[in-house]
Protein backbone atom coordinates (compact mmCIF):
# COMPACT_ATOMS: atom_id res chain seq x y z
CA UNK A 1 0.00 0.00 0.00
CA UNK A 2 1.23 3.50 -0.84
CA UNK A 3 2.94 5.25 2.08
CA UNK A 4 0.81 8.34 1.57
CA UNK A 5 -2.35 6.23 1.81
CA UNK A 6 -1.10 4.56 5.00
CA UNK A 7 -0.24 7.94 6.44
CA UNK A 8 -3.66 9.29 5.55
CA UNK A 9 -5.38 6.29 7.19
CA UNK A 10 -3.34 6.78 10.36
CA UNK A 11 -4.12 10.49 10.39
CA UNK A 12 -7.86 9.93 9.89
CA UNK A 13 -7.92 7.29 12.65
CA UNK A 14 -6.10 9.64 14.99
CA UNK A 15 -8.59 12.41 14.23
CA UNK A 16 -11.50 9.99 14.80
CA UNK A 17 -10.00 8.83 18.08
CA UNK A 18 -9.56 12.43 19.16
CA UNK A 19 -13.18 13.26 18.33
CA UNK A 20 -14.43 10.21 20.25
CA UNK A 21 -12.20 11.11 23.19
CA UNK A 22 -13.50 14.66 23.32
CA UNK A 23 -17.08 13.46 23.00
CA UNK A 24 -16.94 10.81 25.71
CA UNK A 25 -14.08 11.99 27.90
CA UNK A 26 -16.35 13.40 30.61
CA UNK A 27 -18.11 10.05 31.12
CA UNK A 28 -16.86 8.57 34.42
CA UNK A 29 -16.27 5.08 32.99
CA UNK A 30 -14.05 6.49 30.22
CA UNK A 31 -12.15 8.50 32.82
CA UNK A 32 -11.72 5.39 34.91
CA UNK A 33 -10.25 3.57 31.88
CA UNK A 34 -7.88 6.50 31.43
CA UNK A 35 -6.82 6.18 35.05
CA UNK A 36 -6.30 2.43 34.63
CA UNK A 37 -4.02 3.13 31.66
CA UNK A 38 -2.09 5.54 33.87
CA UNK A 39 -1.86 2.80 36.50
CA UNK A 40 -0.22 0.43 33.99
CA UNK A 41 2.13 3.22 32.92
CA UNK A 42 3.13 3.72 36.57
CA UNK A 43 3.88 0.02 36.89
CA UNK A 44 6.30 0.24 33.98
CA UNK A 45 7.72 3.63 35.00
CA UNK A 46 7.07 4.23 38.72
CA UNK A 47 6.35 7.89 39.59
CA UNK A 48 8.69 9.86 41.80
CA UNK A 49 5.86 10.52 44.28
CA UNK A 50 3.95 7.74 46.10
CA UNK A 51 1.05 6.27 44.15
CA UNK A 52 -2.56 6.54 45.23
CA UNK A 53 -4.36 3.71 47.00
CA UNK A 54 -7.67 4.05 45.13
CA UNK A 55 -8.77 3.25 41.59
CA UNK A 56 -7.88 6.74 40.32
CA UNK A 57 -4.16 7.42 40.12
CA UNK A 58 -4.44 11.17 39.65
CA UNK A 59 -2.89 13.10 42.59
CA UNK A 60 -5.63 15.70 42.16
CA UNK A 61 -8.93 15.70 40.32
CA UNK A 62 -12.33 17.37 40.13
CA UNK A 63 -15.75 15.84 40.74
CA UNK A 64 -18.55 17.58 38.82
CA UNK A 65 -22.32 17.19 39.04
CA UNK A 66 -25.48 19.07 38.24
CA UNK A 67 -26.57 18.31 41.82
CA UNK A 68 -24.00 18.76 44.58
CA UNK A 69 -25.36 18.85 48.13
CA UNK A 70 -23.55 21.82 49.68
CA UNK A 71 -24.17 22.87 53.32
CA UNK A 72 -26.55 25.60 52.12
CA UNK A 73 -28.39 23.73 49.38
CA UNK A 74 -28.29 21.67 46.21
CA UNK A 75 -26.95 23.12 42.95
CA UNK A 76 -24.47 22.43 40.14
CA UNK A 77 -20.93 22.34 41.39
CA UNK A 78 -17.34 21.20 41.10
CA UNK A 79 -15.45 19.65 44.00
CA UNK A 80 -11.65 19.95 43.80
CA UNK A 81 -9.75 17.14 45.52
CA UNK A 82 -6.04 17.00 46.30
CA UNK A 83 -4.72 14.05 48.26
CA UNK A 84 -7.26 13.25 50.98
CA UNK A 85 -8.90 16.68 51.18
CA UNK A 86 -11.38 18.90 49.43
CA UNK A 87 -9.31 21.98 48.59
CA UNK A 88 -11.95 24.05 46.80
CA UNK A 89 -15.54 24.04 45.62
CA UNK A 90 -17.14 26.03 42.84
CA UNK A 91 -20.50 26.56 41.19
CA UNK A 92 -18.68 26.90 37.87
CA UNK A 93 -18.84 23.45 36.29
CA UNK A 94 -16.73 24.44 33.28
CA UNK A 95 -13.47 23.03 34.59
CA UNK A 96 -10.06 23.45 32.98
CA UNK A 97 -8.56 20.18 34.17
CA UNK A 98 -7.68 16.96 32.34
CA UNK A 99 -8.64 14.97 35.44
CA UNK A 100 -12.37 15.24 36.00
CA UNK A 101 -15.22 12.91 36.92
CA UNK A 102 -18.45 14.36 35.57
CA UNK A 103 -21.45 12.54 37.06
CA UNK A 104 -23.99 14.69 35.18
CA UNK A 105 -27.37 14.52 36.98
CA UNK A 106 -26.32 12.04 39.68
CA UNK A 107 -26.19 13.56 43.16
CA UNK A 108 -22.83 14.19 44.81
CA UNK A 109 -23.17 14.31 48.61
CA UNK A 110 -20.99 13.95 51.70
CA UNK A 111 -20.21 10.31 52.39
CA UNK A 112 -22.61 8.50 54.69
CA UNK A 113 -21.45 8.05 58.29
CA UNK A 114 -22.91 5.01 60.06
CA UNK A 115 -22.47 5.46 63.79
CA UNK A 116 -24.00 2.10 64.71
CA UNK A 117 -22.45 -1.03 63.21
CA UNK A 118 -21.28 -4.35 64.69
CA UNK A 119 -18.17 -5.63 62.91
CA UNK A 120 -17.43 -8.25 65.61
CA UNK A 121 -13.68 -8.39 65.07
CA UNK A 122 -11.60 -9.77 66.62
CA UNK A 123 -13.22 -12.95 67.87
CA UNK A 124 -16.43 -13.35 65.85
CA UNK A 125 -15.41 -12.76 62.26
CA UNK A 126 -17.72 -15.61 61.26
CA UNK A 127 -20.62 -13.28 62.20
CA UNK A 128 -19.25 -10.23 60.39
CA UNK A 129 -15.73 -8.91 60.04
CA UNK A 130 -14.07 -5.63 59.19
CA UNK A 131 -13.16 -6.69 55.65
CA UNK A 132 -16.59 -7.81 54.49
CA UNK A 133 -18.54 -5.36 56.63
CA UNK A 134 -16.73 -2.30 55.32
CA UNK A 135 -16.77 -3.57 51.72
CA UNK A 136 -20.55 -3.81 51.96
CA UNK A 137 -20.69 -0.40 53.61
CA UNK A 138 -18.73 1.40 50.89
CA UNK A 139 -20.72 -0.35 48.17
CA UNK A 140 -23.73 1.31 49.77
CA UNK A 141 -22.13 4.77 49.89
CA UNK A 142 -21.04 4.61 53.53
CA UNK A 143 -17.55 6.11 53.85
CA UNK A 144 -17.14 6.10 57.66
CA UNK A 145 -18.36 3.61 60.26
CA UNK A 146 -18.15 3.76 64.05
CA UNK A 147 -17.84 0.21 65.33
CA UNK A 148 -19.60 -1.05 68.44
CA UNK A 149 -17.68 -2.66 71.34
CA UNK A 150 -19.65 -5.90 70.91
CA UNK A 151 -20.09 -8.56 69.55
CA UNK A 152 -16.33 -8.89 69.23
CA UNK A 153 -14.73 -11.40 71.57
CA UNK A 154 -13.48 -10.18 73.97
CA UNK A 155 -15.60 -7.04 74.04
CA UNK A 156 -13.96 -3.61 73.88
CA UNK A 157 -14.04 -2.49 77.49
CA UNK A 158 -10.32 -1.88 78.05
CA UNK A 159 -7.39 -0.44 76.14
CA UNK A 160 -5.91 -3.82 75.22
CA UNK A 161 -9.02 -4.80 73.30
CA UNK A 162 -9.33 -1.36 71.70
CA UNK A 163 -5.76 -1.66 70.41
CA UNK A 164 -6.61 -5.06 68.91
CA UNK A 165 -9.54 -3.52 67.03
CA UNK A 166 -7.36 -0.68 65.78
CA UNK A 167 -4.75 -3.09 64.40
CA UNK A 168 -7.37 -5.13 62.58
CA UNK A 169 -9.12 -2.09 61.10
CA UNK A 170 -5.89 -0.46 59.97
CA UNK A 171 -5.15 -3.49 57.80
CA UNK A 172 -8.64 -4.36 56.55
CA UNK A 173 -10.97 -1.35 56.44
CA UNK A 174 -12.47 -0.20 53.13
CA UNK A 175 -14.12 2.72 54.90
CA UNK A 176 -12.86 5.05 57.59
CA UNK A 177 -13.39 3.42 60.99
CA UNK A 178 -13.84 4.79 64.50
CA UNK A 179 -14.75 3.00 67.71
CA UNK A 180 -17.14 3.21 70.63
CA UNK A 181 -15.82 1.63 73.83
CA UNK A 182 -18.01 -0.40 76.17
CA UNK A 183 -19.30 1.02 79.45
CA UNK A 184 -20.29 -1.87 81.71
CA UNK A 185 -20.80 -2.31 85.47
CA UNK A 186 -17.14 -3.30 85.90
CA UNK A 187 -15.76 0.01 84.55
CA UNK A 188 -18.61 2.52 85.00
CA UNK A 189 -17.12 4.07 88.14
CA UNK A 190 -13.49 3.72 87.04
CA UNK A 191 -12.94 7.15 85.52
CA UNK A 192 -9.22 6.47 85.08
CA UNK A 193 -9.91 3.48 82.84
CA UNK A 194 -12.60 5.35 80.93
CA UNK A 195 -10.14 8.19 80.37
CA UNK A 196 -7.52 5.77 79.10
CA UNK A 197 -9.99 4.46 76.54
CA UNK A 198 -10.68 7.97 75.25
CA UNK A 199 -6.96 8.74 75.16
CA UNK A 200 -6.42 5.54 73.14
CA UNK A 201 -8.94 6.61 70.52
CA UNK A 202 -12.46 5.72 71.67
CA UNK A 203 -14.92 8.35 70.43
CA UNK A 204 -17.44 7.68 73.21
CA UNK A 205 -19.13 4.87 75.11
CA UNK A 206 -21.91 2.33 74.57
CA UNK A 207 -24.04 0.63 77.21
CA UNK A 208 -26.98 -1.74 77.34
CA UNK A 209 -29.75 -1.25 79.88
CA UNK A 210 -30.95 -4.81 79.22
CA UNK A 211 -29.26 -8.15 78.60
CA UNK A 212 -26.95 -7.71 75.60
CA UNK A 213 -26.83 -11.41 74.76
CA UNK A 214 -23.05 -11.36 75.24
CA UNK A 215 -21.92 -12.72 78.61
CA UNK A 216 -18.96 -10.37 79.12
CA UNK A 217 -20.94 -7.23 78.26
CA UNK A 218 -23.24 -6.79 81.24
CA UNK A 219 -26.09 -4.30 81.30
CA UNK A 220 -25.87 -1.14 83.40
CA UNK A 221 -28.38 -0.03 85.99
CA UNK A 222 -29.23 3.37 87.39
CA UNK A 223 -26.30 3.40 89.83
CA UNK A 224 -23.81 2.60 87.05
CA UNK A 225 -25.19 5.41 84.90
CA UNK A 226 -25.00 7.85 87.80
CA UNK A 227 -21.39 6.81 88.47
CA UNK A 228 -20.32 7.35 84.86
CA UNK A 229 -22.15 10.58 84.03
CA UNK A 230 -19.71 12.99 85.75
CA UNK A 231 -16.82 11.62 83.69
CA UNK A 232 -18.77 11.54 80.42
CA UNK A 233 -20.00 15.11 80.86
CA UNK A 234 -16.66 16.52 81.96
CA UNK A 235 -14.78 14.77 79.13
CA UNK A 236 -17.31 15.80 76.49
CA UNK A 237 -17.99 12.38 74.98
CA UNK A 238 -21.35 10.81 74.07
CA UNK A 239 -23.05 8.06 76.03
CA UNK A 240 -24.67 5.74 73.47
CA UNK A 241 -27.41 3.66 75.11
CA UNK A 242 -29.50 0.66 74.16
CA UNK A 243 -32.52 1.91 76.05
CA UNK A 244 -34.73 -0.96 77.15
CA UNK A 245 -35.42 -1.90 80.77
CA UNK A 246 -36.96 -5.35 80.90
CA UNK A 247 -39.84 -6.03 83.26
CA UNK A 248 -42.24 -9.01 83.59
CA UNK A 249 -44.62 -9.48 80.68
CA UNK A 250 -47.64 -11.74 80.54
CA UNK A 251 -47.30 -14.22 77.70
CA UNK A 252 -49.25 -17.11 76.27
CA UNK A 253 -47.14 -20.28 76.56
CA UNK A 254 -49.13 -21.78 73.70
CA UNK A 255 -48.37 -18.90 71.31
CA UNK A 256 -46.74 -19.86 68.00
CA UNK A 257 -42.99 -19.07 68.26
CA UNK A 258 -42.75 -18.76 64.48
CA UNK A 259 -45.28 -15.89 64.47
CA UNK A 260 -43.61 -12.49 64.63
CA UNK A 261 -46.31 -11.10 66.95
CA UNK A 262 -45.32 -13.69 69.57
CA UNK A 263 -41.84 -12.19 69.75
CA UNK A 264 -42.99 -8.57 69.49
CA UNK A 265 -45.30 -9.03 72.48
CA UNK A 266 -42.34 -10.08 74.65
CA UNK A 267 -40.72 -6.62 74.24
CA UNK A 268 -43.48 -4.01 74.57
CA UNK A 269 -42.90 -0.25 74.12
CA UNK A 270 -42.91 0.05 77.92
CA UNK A 271 -39.35 -1.32 77.96
CA UNK A 272 -38.08 1.64 75.91
CA UNK A 273 -40.19 4.16 77.79
CA UNK A 274 -38.99 2.98 81.20
CA UNK A 275 -35.35 3.09 80.09
CA UNK A 276 -35.61 6.58 78.61
CA UNK A 277 -37.40 7.80 81.72
CA UNK A 278 -34.56 6.43 83.89
CA UNK A 279 -31.93 8.12 81.71
CA UNK A 280 -33.72 11.45 82.04
CA UNK A 281 -33.99 11.03 85.83
CA UNK A 282 -30.23 10.46 86.05
CA UNK A 283 -29.56 13.52 83.89
CA UNK A 284 -31.86 15.59 86.10
CA UNK A 285 -30.00 14.44 89.21
CA UNK A 286 -26.45 15.08 87.95
CA UNK A 287 -25.18 18.65 88.24
CA UNK A 288 -21.80 18.22 86.52
CA UNK A 289 -21.34 20.87 83.79
CA UNK A 290 -21.45 19.22 80.36
CA UNK A 291 -18.51 19.92 78.06
CA UNK A 292 -19.21 20.29 74.32
CA UNK A 293 -19.57 16.88 72.69
CA UNK A 294 -21.45 15.22 75.54
CA UNK A 295 -24.91 13.84 74.98
CA UNK A 296 -26.92 10.90 76.13
CA UNK A 297 -27.65 9.27 72.80
CA UNK A 298 -30.62 6.92 72.57
CA UNK A 299 -29.80 4.16 70.11
CA UNK A 300 -32.22 2.65 67.59
CA UNK A 301 -35.48 4.16 68.83
CA UNK A 302 -38.34 1.88 67.79
CA UNK A 303 -41.15 3.35 69.90
CA UNK A 304 -42.64 6.55 68.50
CA UNK A 305 -44.55 6.94 71.76
CA UNK A 306 -41.30 7.95 73.48
CA UNK A 307 -40.76 11.02 71.30
CA UNK A 308 -42.72 13.47 73.45
CA UNK A 309 -40.77 12.48 76.55
CA UNK A 310 -37.51 12.94 74.67
CA UNK A 311 -38.53 16.33 73.31
CA UNK A 312 -39.46 17.58 76.77
CA UNK A 313 -36.11 16.49 78.22
CA UNK A 314 -34.12 18.03 75.37
CA UNK A 315 -35.11 21.46 76.68
CA UNK A 316 -32.96 20.72 79.74
CA UNK A 317 -30.27 18.29 78.64
CA UNK A 318 -27.99 17.29 75.75
CA UNK A 319 -30.13 14.35 74.62
CA UNK A 320 -29.97 12.98 71.08
CA UNK A 321 -31.79 10.11 69.42
CA UNK A 322 -31.43 7.89 66.39
CA UNK A 323 -33.62 5.38 64.67
CA UNK A 324 -32.58 2.79 62.13
CA UNK A 325 -33.38 2.34 58.46
CA UNK A 326 -35.23 -0.92 59.14
CA UNK A 327 -37.71 0.83 61.44
CA UNK A 328 -38.49 3.17 58.52
CA UNK A 329 -38.84 0.33 56.02
CA UNK A 330 -40.64 -2.63 57.62
CA UNK A 331 -43.67 -3.06 59.84
CA UNK A 332 -44.89 -5.96 61.93
CA UNK A 333 -47.97 -6.66 59.84
CA UNK A 334 -45.84 -7.54 56.82
CA UNK A 335 -43.46 -10.05 58.46
CA UNK A 336 -44.19 -13.65 57.39
CA UNK A 337 -44.09 -16.51 59.86
CA UNK A 338 -40.64 -17.95 60.44
CA UNK A 339 -38.72 -15.15 58.70
CA UNK A 340 -36.28 -14.47 61.51
CA UNK A 341 -34.14 -12.15 59.39
CA UNK A 342 -36.59 -9.46 60.61
CA UNK A 343 -35.83 -10.03 64.31
CA UNK A 344 -34.12 -7.18 66.12
CA UNK A 345 -34.32 -5.45 69.49
CA UNK A 346 -36.21 -3.26 70.09
CA UNK A 347 -38.65 -4.97 67.71
CA UNK A 348 -40.14 -3.68 64.50
CA UNK A 349 -43.62 -2.44 65.37
CA UNK A 350 -46.82 -1.71 63.45
CA UNK A 351 -47.35 0.45 60.38
CA UNK A 352 -48.74 3.40 62.35
CA UNK A 353 -45.62 3.44 64.52
CA UNK A 354 -43.42 3.28 61.41
CA UNK A 355 -45.25 6.25 59.89
CA UNK A 356 -44.74 8.25 63.10
CA UNK A 357 -41.01 7.49 63.09
CA UNK A 358 -40.71 8.56 59.46
CA UNK A 359 -42.48 11.83 60.25
CA UNK A 360 -40.10 12.41 63.18
CA UNK A 361 -37.09 11.76 60.96
CA UNK A 362 -38.37 14.18 58.32
CA UNK A 363 -39.12 16.91 60.89
CA UNK A 364 -35.79 16.61 62.71
CA UNK A 365 -37.30 15.29 65.95
CA UNK A 366 -35.05 12.27 65.41
CA UNK A 367 -31.47 13.43 64.93
CA UNK A 368 -30.02 10.75 62.72
CA UNK A 369 -30.48 7.34 61.12
CA UNK A 370 -28.10 4.38 61.41
CA UNK A 371 -28.03 0.78 60.21
CA UNK A 372 -27.39 -1.12 63.47
CA UNK A 373 -25.88 -3.71 61.14
CA UNK A 374 -25.72 -6.84 63.30
CA UNK A 375 -25.70 -10.08 61.32
CA UNK A 376 -25.17 -13.56 62.67
CA UNK A 377 -24.63 -17.03 61.18
CA UNK A 378 -27.79 -18.71 59.85
CA UNK A 379 -27.71 -21.27 62.65
CA UNK A 380 -28.06 -18.49 65.26
CA UNK A 381 -30.90 -16.96 63.25
CA UNK A 382 -32.83 -20.25 63.56
CA UNK A 383 -33.50 -20.33 59.83
CA UNK A 384 -34.58 -23.95 59.84
CA UNK A 385 -36.93 -23.74 62.81
CA UNK A 386 -38.16 -20.19 62.19
CA UNK A 387 -38.41 -19.73 65.95
CA UNK A 388 -38.41 -16.00 66.70
CA UNK A 389 -38.02 -16.58 70.43
CA UNK A 390 -34.75 -18.50 69.99
CA UNK A 391 -33.27 -16.60 67.03
CA UNK A 392 -30.47 -14.07 67.49
CA UNK A 393 -31.77 -10.53 67.19
CA UNK A 394 -29.97 -8.44 64.63
CA UNK A 395 -30.56 -7.14 61.10
CA UNK A 396 -28.06 -7.25 58.26
CA UNK A 397 -28.32 -3.97 56.38
CA UNK A 398 -25.40 -1.51 56.27
CA UNK A 399 -25.28 -1.78 52.47
CA UNK A 400 -28.88 -0.49 52.29
CA UNK A 401 -28.73 2.35 54.82
CA UNK A 402 -28.75 5.11 52.21
CA UNK A 403 -31.46 3.81 49.85
CA UNK A 404 -33.73 2.65 52.67
CA UNK A 405 -33.51 6.01 54.44
CA UNK A 406 -33.96 7.97 51.21
CA UNK A 407 -36.97 5.89 50.14
CA UNK A 408 -38.79 6.60 53.42
CA UNK A 409 -37.66 10.22 53.64
CA UNK A 410 -38.58 11.21 50.09
CA UNK A 411 -42.04 9.66 50.48
CA UNK A 412 -42.54 11.92 53.50
CA UNK A 413 -41.54 15.03 51.54
CA UNK A 414 -37.91 15.10 52.69
CA UNK A 415 -35.16 16.66 50.60
CA UNK A 416 -31.61 15.73 49.67
CA UNK A 417 -30.40 18.24 52.25
CA UNK A 418 -32.51 16.44 54.87
CA UNK A 419 -30.86 13.17 53.88
CA UNK A 420 -27.40 14.65 54.35
CA UNK A 421 -28.44 16.05 57.74
CA UNK A 422 -29.54 12.59 58.87
CA UNK A 423 -26.78 10.44 57.37
CA UNK A 424 -23.74 12.73 57.36
CA UNK A 425 -23.93 15.98 59.34
CA UNK A 426 -25.60 14.76 62.56
CA UNK A 427 -23.58 11.52 62.71
CA UNK A 428 -20.37 13.54 62.28
CA UNK A 429 -21.36 15.75 65.22
CA UNK A 430 -22.14 12.77 67.44
CA UNK A 431 -18.81 11.11 66.68
CA UNK A 432 -16.88 14.35 67.21
CA UNK A 433 -15.84 14.50 63.54
CA UNK A 434 -17.86 17.52 62.42
CA UNK A 435 -14.71 19.57 61.80
CA UNK A 436 -13.56 17.22 59.03
CA UNK A 437 -16.51 15.15 57.86
CA UNK A 438 -20.18 15.43 56.94
CA UNK A 439 -19.90 18.44 54.58
CA UNK A 440 -18.68 19.29 51.12
CA UNK A 441 -16.50 22.29 51.87
CA UNK A 442 -12.84 23.31 51.56
CA UNK A 443 -10.66 21.73 54.22
CA UNK A 444 -12.99 18.79 54.80
CA UNK A 445 -12.05 15.19 54.12
CA UNK A 446 -12.82 14.09 50.56
CA UNK A 447 -15.46 11.54 51.56
CA UNK A 448 -18.20 11.51 48.93
CA UNK A 449 -21.10 9.39 47.77
CA UNK A 450 -22.56 9.64 44.28
CA UNK A 451 -26.06 8.27 43.78
CA UNK A 452 -29.08 8.44 41.54
CA UNK A 453 -32.04 9.22 43.82
CA UNK A 454 -34.75 8.18 41.34
CA UNK A 455 -33.10 4.93 40.21
CA UNK A 456 -33.77 1.58 41.91
CA UNK A 457 -31.10 0.37 44.31
CA UNK A 458 -29.72 -3.12 43.72
CA UNK A 459 -30.92 -5.18 46.69
CA UNK A 460 -30.27 -8.57 45.09
CA UNK A 461 -28.36 -11.31 46.85
CA UNK A 462 -25.86 -11.20 43.97
CA UNK A 463 -24.59 -7.74 45.00
CA UNK A 464 -24.94 -8.27 48.77
CA UNK A 465 -21.40 -8.10 50.18
CA UNK A 466 -22.24 -8.85 53.82
CA UNK A 467 -20.67 -12.01 55.22
CA UNK A 468 -24.14 -13.52 55.52
CA UNK A 469 -26.59 -12.83 52.74
CA UNK A 470 -29.73 -13.30 54.86
CA UNK A 471 -31.34 -9.87 55.05
CA UNK A 472 -34.89 -8.51 55.17
CA UNK A 473 -33.84 -6.02 52.48
CA UNK A 474 -33.31 -8.69 49.82
CA UNK A 475 -35.18 -7.74 46.63
CA UNK A 476 -37.04 -4.93 48.43
CA UNK A 477 -37.75 -2.06 45.99
CA UNK A 478 -35.72 0.88 47.29
CA UNK A 479 -34.78 4.13 45.55
CA UNK A 480 -31.28 5.53 45.48
CA UNK A 481 -28.79 3.66 43.32
CA UNK A 482 -25.25 4.22 44.58
CA UNK A 483 -22.92 5.01 41.67
CA UNK A 484 -19.62 5.69 43.42
CA UNK A 485 -17.94 6.31 46.76
CA UNK A 486 -14.78 8.28 47.51
CA UNK A 487 -13.04 7.56 50.83
CA UNK A 488 -10.42 10.10 51.85
CA UNK A 489 -9.88 11.14 48.23
CA UNK A 490 -9.60 7.55 47.05
CA UNK A 491 -12.15 6.30 44.53
CA UNK A 492 -13.17 3.08 46.27
CA UNK A 493 -16.34 1.93 44.51
CA UNK A 494 -17.89 2.74 41.15
CA UNK A 495 -20.74 1.20 39.17
CA UNK A 496 -20.87 -1.89 41.40
CA UNK A 497 -17.11 -2.52 41.32
CA UNK A 498 -14.65 -2.09 44.18
CA UNK A 499 -11.07 -0.92 44.26
CA UNK A 500 -8.37 -3.61 44.44
CA UNK A 501 -7.46 -2.88 48.05
CA UNK A 502 -8.89 -1.11 51.12
CA UNK A 503 -8.03 2.55 51.65
CA UNK A 504 -9.86 3.39 54.89
CA UNK A 505 -8.28 5.35 57.73
CA UNK A 506 -8.71 5.17 61.50
CA UNK A 507 -10.71 7.94 63.19
CA UNK A 508 -9.31 8.21 66.70
CA UNK A 509 -9.65 11.83 67.76
CA UNK A 510 -12.75 13.85 68.52
CA UNK A 511 -12.67 17.40 67.28
CA UNK A 512 -10.65 16.41 64.21
Automatic annotation (TrEMBL):
InterPro entries: Allantoinase (IPR017593), Amidohydro-rel (IPR006680), DHOase/Allantoinase_Hydrolase (IPR050138), Dihydroorotase_CS (IPR002195), Metal-dep_hydrolase_composite (IPR011059), Metal_Hydrolase (IPR032466). Its EC number is 3.5.2.5. Pathway: Nitrogen metabolism; (S)-allantoin degradation; allantoate from (S)-allantoin: step 1/1. It comes from the Eukaryota. The keyword Hydrolase applies. One of its GO terms (biological process) is purine nucleobase catabolic process. Residues 107-491 form the Amidohydrolase-related domain. GO terms for molecular function: allantoinase activity; cobalt ion binding; zinc ion binding. GO terms for cellular component: cytoplasm. It holds the Pfam family Amidohydro_1. Homotetramer. Belongs to the metallo-dependent hydrolases superfamily. Allantoinase family. This is allantoinase. It comes from Chlamydomonas incerta.
